[in-house]
């Protein structure tokens, strides 16, 4: 007799399949049956674990947030001596340009519209937002230690706005910024209040 599937592991596997579906087909392509087929499980499995479309959507958002937190935790480790303070942030952002990070970025983009009308869905993504903001502020403070609090706040806002726009561009396939090293240089320029380096 086969080993019984761990329910939590099964839920994660179904959510991971749903993330791929969202990335490939958009919100309208996310159905219980399609998740079953994508995950390679018997028809009806997704409906057993997530009874409604809303329950499935909230679970997928939670899984995206869980994976985001794993990446964010790794990226917010204190920089090693001599390491560019922008390195962690640049690496975190550029993971959204390829592989599983790209798939998750596209899925997150698909979840953005329903979250604007669903407070519960929005709350899932808000859980780690302050930590993301704090990471940007820390980078600004490390790169411009002589800046006064008002300058730090302003540069943090500029950096957040730029990174948010870049993440959106990456999720749509824009590769104008093609490497973490290139992004590091741009972040350093923004944080220090100087002119941006030439791209290319």
Structural class: mainly alpha
Topology pattern, helix = H, strand = E: HHHHHHHHHH
**Strand percentage:** under 5%
Q: Report the mean per-residue pLDDT as an integer.
A: 89
CATH architecture of the domain at 58-192: Orthogonal Bundle
Distance between the termini: 59 Å
Shape, please?
Answer: elongated
Number of strands: 0
Tell me, what is the CATH class of the domain at 58-192?
Mainly Alpha
Name the helicity range. 55-70%
Rg for CA atoms = 19 Å
| Tally of separate helices | 10
Reported by name, the CATH topology of the domain at 58-192 is Tetracycline Repressor, domain 2
Contiguous low-pLDDT stretches (5 residues minimum) are none
